[in-house]
Write a structure and sequence with these properties.
Number of helices of chain A: 14
Shape of chain A: globular
Strand order of the largest sheet of chain A: 2-1-3-4-5
Mean pLDDT of chain A: 95
Number of strands of chain A: 10
Oligomer: homodimer
Distance between the termini of chain A: 28 Å
Low-confidence stretches of chain A: none
Structural class of chain A: alpha/beta
Chain lengths: 342, 342
């Protein structure tokens, strides 16, 4: 897992170089089709990537985005009206049976279909109209890291390709360098995890574009460290779940710059009153001041491109905490790399 | 909270009687508008009701449904293309500022808008094209119960009104009687909660139509009992989070009859191997046999109408567990009835 985390800057660079031309051409093709809905279909870490894709694509393209509920198709046999939809399946292995069933149904109903996967010869690539590949090599750890950021990157490239003519570029080419900068945090994280070795449960919070990071960090903590990790947006967290917070309760918070920072600062101030124990990933001095601990991120990373560099210290945190607990993050108990569900 | 739980059968009956004519007329109006997307906007318990609405509406109408991310509108200022959409806001108080902002934006962009609320004179009712009201009276407990099931009921009525001509009726008129039957479980639940007084964290599982019940039971446990309660579909649970399960780990499972029961039985068998501690709400003898404890539901309740009667023992469980722990479920620490977020 640590090896694959470290491979991410190079893997992202390679994926940009290999795929950017194809994604741009695909964008022209999709724009010509008068799409008025995008549906994303995924499970597990890939579903967390899709959660990011949902925010980015709505914000950048103005097209409404829905995250599919696979059982509606696979168990309830519903036939959705998707003639004017773009349906994007996301699966590391390309072998998620339920995801593939939804893609087949969508294609049969006239939708334009795309698969984002790591496996060029998978079942998924045989179903979809177009495949977007990650070029980071086979992922061996059960805990997805480089395929997760590879999927995030593809959503940046897809959003860039679908944005309105004349809209500002996302400049996603800066991401591999930002990811490399984030990797430099490893020694800091190594020292930090000792504090959390006996943590039994926690909450992870993010909002907007980094909401997906809260889901992904929580999933890594569950998979590799066996910590009961809840995930909320800072807005939903105030609707009820805040009641679980007592003195010393551990909360991890993504606080990049931008439109969500004000609300996150308010949440941090409230959590400080409640004497929660907060660890914040941020470049903001005020957010850091309000936190029990902070991981200071490079200041030049703006909100839109924060998602990949901000998940890297969280991936390192999970892998290094597992190690500090004497667990093997590459072989979590009870899990296999490919999960079969219908 | 216990009082309001007990009011539900009568409240549901009243809402059916008062609203069914209006919802049916509204359905004709919406069908005439050639809607090809439904967007649901909510937070907290109302968002859990919307999660149910999403499954039911897709299954019954074939129209794709998206759960809105309010921050896309309120913080990122995106203008989504919603001319052919039906946008449904769900809010007990009708005063959720972010929900109302999304409804305003949607209406401005040409969408047809509906509000489901308990407050006829709220801000929301002034924004939307049509209001669907719950008729169970003012809800005083911070933990929503009768407004949650009232919202679920409105989704049944809306799905019935939007279903294809000639499709089978949902027969939702049976729900108040089923809810009354579920209330008879109170003495059983009173005995059961003693076992869970020192539970610190747990997982709640449901899939398909009762997926929303997993979210709602988890939220009630967090709000009123301060238990760290995760919520998953049985499919997602196998993708990673299963690793947190160790011997004696408490898991609550909704297992109504129908298409999801097979998968839930498989999960129960796996959890039995892992020696987890399971409590299952079910009418199925095999699911009960695989569980550590079971709450046996009336056998005549089919899958489609299971959602409301199956949440009632879970509501009772949360309220009675709070009581057994010496907590006041009507006044959870750190919370207010109306939460303001943008």
């Amino acid at each position: 897992m640590l090896e694959e985390i470290a491979q991410q800057p190079a893997a992202l660079e390679r994926t940009i170089n290999e795929e950017r031309g194809k994604v741009a051409r695909l964008g022209e093709h999709i724009k010509a089709r008068n799409i008025d809905l995008i549906v994303l279909v995924a499970r597990g870490s890939s579903d967390n990537a899709a959660l990011f894709g949902r925010y980015l694509l709505e914000i950048v393209t103005g097209i409404p985005v829905a995250l599919a509920a696979p059982s509606v198709h696979t168990l309830y046999g519903a036939r959705l009206r998707l003639e004017r939809a773009l349906v994007v399946g996301v699966s590391q292995s390309g072998e998620g049976e339920d995801i593939n069933r939804v893609l087949e149904d969508a294609r049969a109903s006239g939708a334009c279909t795309i698969g984002i996967t790591n496996e060029p010869a998978s079942t998924m690539t045989g179903i979809v109209d177009e495949t977007l590949l990650m070029h980071g090599g086979r992922e061996r750890s059960v805990a997805a890291t480089k395929t997760f950021t590879g999927q995030l990157l593809h959503f940046y490239m897809l959003a860039e390709a679908l944005k309105a003519d004349g809209a500002a570029s996302l400049n996603y080419e800066a991401i591999p360098e930002y990811a490399a900068r984030a990797m430099e945090l490893r020694p800091l994280i190594e020292g930090l995890v000792e504090r959390y070795v006996f943590m039994e449960n926690c909450v992870v919070v993010g909002r907007g574009l980094v909401y997906a990071n809260a889901f992904e960090m929580a999933l890594k903590l569950m998979e590799t460290c066996y910590v009961v990790a809840e995930r909320f947006s800072s807005a939903d967290f105030m609707h009820g779940p805040l009641a679980i917070v007592e003195r010393h309760f551990p909360i991890f918070i993504f606080a990049p710059p931008g439109v969500t920072l004000g609300g996150v600062r308010e949440l941090l101030a409230r959590l400080k009153e409640l004497r929660a124990d907060t660890l914040t990933f941020t470049a903001d001095a005020e957010a850091a001041r309000l936190s029990t601990r902070a991981v200071m991120m490079p200041g030049e990373i703006g909100e839109t491109l924060s998602v990949i560099p901000y998940i890297i210290p969280a991936q390192l945190f999970a892998a290094l905490l597992a190690d500090a607990k004497g667990l093997d993050p590459d072989a979590p108990r009870s899990l296999a790399k490919v999960t079969r569900t219908l």
